[in-house]
Specification:
With 256 residues, this protein is α/β, with parallel strands linked by helices. The protein folds into three domains: 56 residues, no CATH class; 37 residues, no CATH class; 140 residues, Metalloproteases ("zincins"), catalytic domain (Zincin-like, 2-Layer Sandwich). Helix content is 37%, strand content 19%. It has eight helices and eleven strands. The chain has a four-stranded mixed β-sheet with strand order 4-5-7-6, with helices on one face. A four-stranded mixed β-sheet has the order 8-10-9-11, covered by helices on one side. Helix 4 crosses helix 5 and helix 4 crosses helix 6. The longest helix is centred in the middle third of the chain and has 27 residues. Bound molecules: zinc ion. The site of zinc ion has 6 residues, from helix 4. Zinc ion binds next to helix 4.
C-alpha cells in the first residue's frame, strides 16, 4: 500500500513536515527548493505511521458532525436547519420539539454522540415507517430496514431482502427519503436498473425524478470522501441511465 499525498505546500521554511488533517488528507509542508526525491524518502520512512493515522482520522471523521454545540447553531433534520438550545436538564440528553433541538449542558462533552444516536434512532423509526407503507401499498415485501454508518452511499438493497440506509438520510427532506426507500424497495424484485425497474419506481412514485435530482443537492453530506475513495463513483448511478436496458446484474447489492 502506498501513501497518496493530497497536497504539497512549498513555502519559505527550513524543514519538511507531514500533516494528516482531520479529514484524513496528507499534507506536506516543504522548503521552496527541497527536491521531490527527499520528500518522497521522508514519506516512505513514515509510511506506516501515515497510513495508520490516516485510517484513524477518517474513521473518526465519518462519525463526526463537526459542530461546536453552541446555542443558536443549526442542525439539519428532514431537510431543514433547526436551532440548538442548551438547557439545564440533567436527565434528558437531547430532545427535539417544534423545530428546536434541546441539548443538556451536562452532556456537552459527548454532544456529538448524543446527536448521532438521536439521528440514528429517528432514521430507524422514520425509514421503517415509510418502507412499511410503500411495501404494503404496492405489495413488495421486504425483511427489515437497517440503519448503517455508511458514508459512501445513501442506501442499498441486499440479496437477503433487507434494505440498508445510512443514518444520514434523516438529514434530507421527507420526499427525498421516500424516494430512497422506493428506489431500494423496487430492487427487491428487480436487481438491476433496467427500464422495467424504473417503471416499477415510477409506479410507486410518479414524480420520482424530481426527488432524485433534489437528492443531488445533498450529495455533500456523503461526498466528503468522494475524491480519495476510489470506489465511491462506481457505486453511483445517474438519471441518464434511466431508460437504458441494463443487463441483469449479478451483484447482491444495489446502491444509490
Ligand atoms: Zn439502484
Amino acid at each position: 500500500m502506498s501513501v497518496k499525498v493530497d497536497q504539497i505546500k512549498r513555502t519559505d521554511r527550513k524543514t519538511t513536515e507531514i500533516e494528516v488533517s482531520v479529514e484524513g488528507h496528507i499534507i506536506v509542508r516543504a522548503p521552496l527548493n527541497e527536491p521531490m526525491e527527499k520528500i518522497e524518502e521522508l514519506i516512505e520512512s513514515k509510511k506506516f505511521w501515515l497510513l495508520r493515522t490516516q485510517q484513524i482520522s477518517r474513521a473518526k471523521y465519518i462519525n463526526d458532525l463537526h459542530k461546536k454545540y453552541e446555542e443558536g447553531e443549526k442542525f439539519l433534520y428532514l431537510g431543514i436547519e433547526r436551532d440548538l438550545k442548551i438547557v439545564d436538564n440533567p436527565e434528558i440528553k437531547l430532545t427535539y420539539h417544534e423545530g428546536t433541538f434541546y441539548l443538556s449542558k451536562y452532556y456537552l462533552k459527548v454532544a456529538n454522540k448524543c446527536f448521532i444516536d438521536w439521528y440514528k434512532d429517528r432514521a430507524r423509526e422514520y425509514v421503517s415507517d415509510i418502507a412499511d407503507r410503500f411495501s404494503q401499498r404496492y405489495n413488495v415485501p421486504y425483511k427489515k430496514a437497517i440503519i448503517k454508518d455508511s458514508f459512501r452511499q445513501w442506501a442499498s438493497c441486499s440479496g437477503d431482502g433487507n434494505l440498508n440506509f445510512s443514518w444520514r438520510v434523516i438529514l434530507v427532506p421527507p420526499e427525498v427519503i421516500s424516494y430512497l426507500v422506493v428506489h431500494e424497495l423496487a430492487h427487491i424484485n428487480l436487481r438491476n436498473h433496467s427500464s422495467e425497474y424504473w417503471n416499477k419506481v415510477e409506479q410507486m412514485m410518479p414524480d420520482y425524478i424530481k426527488y432524485e435530482n433534489l437528492l443531488k443537492e445533498y450529495d455533500h453530506i456523503l461526498s466528503i470522501f468522494k475524491n480519495d475513495m476510489g470506489s465511491f463513483d462506481s457505486g453511483k448511478e445517474s438519471t441518464s441511465k434511466k431508460k437504458e436496458n441494463v443487463k441483469q446484474n449479478k451483484q447482491l447489492e444495489f446502491e444509490i
